Structures
1.
Amino acid sequence: MADRSLLDRRRGVNAVGAAASATTVGALPVYLVGALSVQIGRDLDLSSAAIGTIVATFWGTSALFSVAAGRFGDLVGVRTGLGLCAVLASLSLMGTAVLGWSAWWLASTLAVAGVANAAAHPYSNMLLTQAVPTRRRGLAFGIKQAAIPLATLLAGLAVPALAVTVGWRWAFVSAAVLALLPLLMLRGVDRGRQHRRPMASRRAHRPAPLPPCCADSCASRL
């Protein structure tokens, strides 16, 4: 019983980590563009209006794909959908670093990131409701909501740490590696489910006890 409780607790912690990290990396691309707008605009000769249009592309894509992303999660499963969200966010960040040589390319990669952001919220919410006990869900959702300020914090720190020193593209490369963190957390959630399946399967195959009337009837026949 103690081992099962420990596994449930670890599974809940991994689920909170996966939800929070997926929400962070889903919103990180647009905040990076905003924080690094000076360096990006100077490098690509983009005006403030162009940067604003690129940022609007991200939020517009997120709004358009939110409902479809939720339905897709119902089809493929929450964990698969959240893993795809992390991979998509990582690809968009790496694509911004490698292919972001014009406003059109930046808008395209941010549109991909908008799809990942649209999927991150419903998938992470569903994961928390599945893996976290009811008495802990308030704390779990509070940690998950703190992911958005964390994304802005990381974007702000990228300016003095990377953009000013080695270039703004390396900030996106670093964020692309960070975007794969939810995959590691999801492995911990799946591992907790695998440990619980044998007990569940034994209970499923255990014959149900006979009602008292049937038990008395069988005993009289013997």
2.
Amino acid sequence: MNSPKEDGDDDTPVKDPVKYGELVILGYNGSLPCGDRGRRKSRFALYRRAKANGVKPSTVHILNTPQDSKAVHSRGQHSISFTLSRNQTVVVEYCHDNNTDMFQIGRSTESPIDFVVTDTSGGGKESEDPSIAPSTISRFACRVVCERSPPYTARIYAAGFDSSKNIFLGEKATKWKNPDGHMDGLTTNGVLVMHPEGFPDEPKQGLWREISVCGDVYALRETRSGPSRGKLAEGESSALRDGSLVDLCGATLLWRTGEGLMRAPTLRHLEALRQELNASRPQCPVGLSTLAFPSLPRSHSLEERQPWVYLSCGHVHGRHEWGQRDSDEPRDNEEPAARRECPLCRSVGPYVPLWLGCEPAVYADAGAPTHAFVPCGHVCSEKTTRYWAETPLPHGTHAFRPICPFCSCALSSPGWTRLIFQGPID
């Protein structure tokens, strides 16, 4: 877990803080490959600040010259600028809000960003400098605004304020004036949100929607960066629920509420499940060697007693050269999984090492690690594999696909397999 005290943040209390919730980047399995450092990490905990830093709309200015715009921005207030033409810009000033805390998320490493998000589209690989590396994630992607009083509702908004406290929507950006007169718009690649029902007890996927700069909810555009907004989703809210997914076009974040985290499994619980599984002394039916899952959090190197699985049938073995066949064709720049013939049932398919899922926030329950995602081999509970295998996430400009929440690998139908362990022979 993150410390309540973030780097350079003097507004966050350290004694008995109220925890609004956590944002977890899918695909990193508990930590960034090079380790969590400062504002760059695989998860970000949102705590109530000692002093509110939220803002809310106040004065609207209609400007006809660049000089007018400069005069408005010199006041040091937060603002959103909507450029309608070369000769007209609408600037909405924001004033301080004592009732909310604001947290900003994006690729930029500048100080206004609380949570620096790295791109996971490259298979979980981490860039050395996310602020300059090629990425579809916006430098100031979105902001989460939390109410400081119970029930501590958190709302998502597209775009974040930059170092000059401005959100700038240029002439080519998708923007409009609503019937009530207030301006709104969308970011280039959009901020998409999916609110599930009943997560994690009886989870049911919701519809993917797009969130506007002012927090309104719209149906998706025809393509991710299309010029026309979707239809307004009447009656729907930008308020995040436990299990809500936020897609930034390059990384998908999972929101867990403070209450939801209290009921979620912990890393200690997952470690206990690992030890219990290893204590049953599963064996390789070919080499008759005892298998054991590596300790949590796992290393990225294979160990001698690492369990392997035939994904087509679920039979668990130790590593061996039995039934080796040609490899599958590589997919998405990943190494191909070896295709082997299972010595127990003769089924042919990918043969991969098994890894325990180390990110507790993505678990739908605290059940035993009995199932593995296909084709990556990450192991968790049956309920968790079924939920994520049935949850399509945005991919590309208009496609959706289910992924493994631990490594972001695209899943092959049906997405999971039940593991069949061979017990010790007495």
